[in-house]
Amino acid sequence: MRVLLMTVPAPWEQDQHRFMNIRRKGFGWLKIRPLVNVVPSPSLLYLVPHLKGDGHEVHYLEGLFSTPEIVLETVRRIQPDVVGMTVTSVDWRNMKHLARSLRGAFPELTLVAGGIHPTLWKEQCFEECPELDIVVYGDGEITARELMRRLQDRAPLEGVQGIIYRNDGEVAVNPPRPPVKDLDTLPFPDRSVVDLSKYLPSPTFYHRLPHESIIGSRGCPYHCTFCHTDPFTRMRSARNIVDEIEMLHRDHGVVDVAFWDDTFTLSERRASEVCDEMLRRRLKVDWCVNARADKVDLPLLRHMKRAGCWRVLYGIESGVQKNIDTLRKELTLTQIADAVRMTNKAGIEAYGTFMFGIPGETYEEGLQTIEFACSIGLDFAVFVSLTPFPGSAVYEDVQSGRIRAVKHEAPYDLKNVSFVPEGMTEEQIISLIKQGHKRFYLRPRLVGQRIRKMRNIHDLKKNIKGFFLLLTAS
Q1: Nearest residue to 317 (alpha-carbon basis) of 327, 303, 330, 307
Q2: What domains sit in the chain, N to C, each tagged with a CATH number?
Q3: Please, are residues 254 and 292 in contact by the beta-carbon 8 Å criterion?
Q4: Distance between terminal CA atoms of the chain?
Q5: How far apart are CA 320 and CA 214, in angstroms?
Q6: At what angle do helices 426-441 and 363-375 cross, to 10 degrees?
Q7: d(CA 39, CA 288)
Q8: pTM here?
Q9: d(C-alpha 427, C-alpha 394), whole Å
Q10: For the segment 294-352, what is each residue's pLDDT rounded down to a tens digit?
């Protein structure tokens, strides 16, 4: 069979003209646009070796390089039997529009959706998007392989674990597939279907180019109220992770890697073993990670630095302890400040994420968060509004009425304020986001620090892109 795997195009209506202009410029815009954080979807690339191994012809389409018209043109040219889309909650509204167009133009096409949003909403996806034929939920690698075999043989879908499908006008829900416990048994994502030279992540997510992403673990055992990550945590071995990095370096020229793990240092032993492997193989690849403030210490950070780690991202969220407790972060401001201080001391750049609109937060506390962000030695910071994604505790509280909030028509649009708790206004949250970026990045000390760290023309271009990102965010 011929299979097209794709991500969802960027906003369908309001940004149509902007993305058409991008297309007219070709891919050159990626070298100058700072706002688009585009990397290949690891979840889709993990499916490719399984499908190719069964003889299917697999194509990949990057939605953020496309408009909906280009998607239709691509489907017309490739003539796939199946289109499989990975969908986040942010993408859901756009995917419904796309599915409607695909169904109208290609009525015989099998439309499959997978990813975090279908996994969480399951049957509700069929209610909101009648054009969908099949939803894959949970780990998709083995499910996709079995599903394509059934579709190719025109066999019934009954018994295929991890799918929901339409059966004679009714929605059939098959039992879940057990998650993959040993991630080392999975083949590496197949990057042969993408051109890595056309991708460019956000300036704060890469050190050198070419760049690629790595998933070293799945799941997170913590219970932050705004997060919808699967709590069942599985980790790849250090050897398996570094095998993939070495392959990326050898076969694709990759010199920079970002780990998508929620907490790379969840097992400090495994984090140290990754460093040992990187050093033993003398791999000259830079890398960055996400970590919790209570899961680092100075010896580990120094070991990470020696092995090529250049940046650690900490989910800080607030500079007020009450609000951190509301989010169930299980962290203290002292732990956060100590982690950033140790990161600085190890010679690694520190990145902090912050959010406004936390239930019970006041505007004055938002200002305290900005002051905290500016005071603890961070190299990068981003300020956003809290978004109640399906599957999160905040979402359940809003739906049940336990938290009063103002919700927008597009509730998962990260570019807008989608959640305004009682006691704050949308205008206050927007003001805090703007003030946060201006106060943090326009400090003379930080500007001087960025200038002193520039080593070459590449660093200059990267900082210019970051400056334009700041202007837009503000």
Answers
A1: 327
A2: 2-173 (3.40.50.280), 201-473 (3.20.20.70)
A3: no
A4: 48
A5: 33
A6: 20
A7: 15
A8: 0.89
A9: 21
A10: 999 999 999 999 999 999 999 999 999 999 999 999 999 999 999 999 999 999 999 99
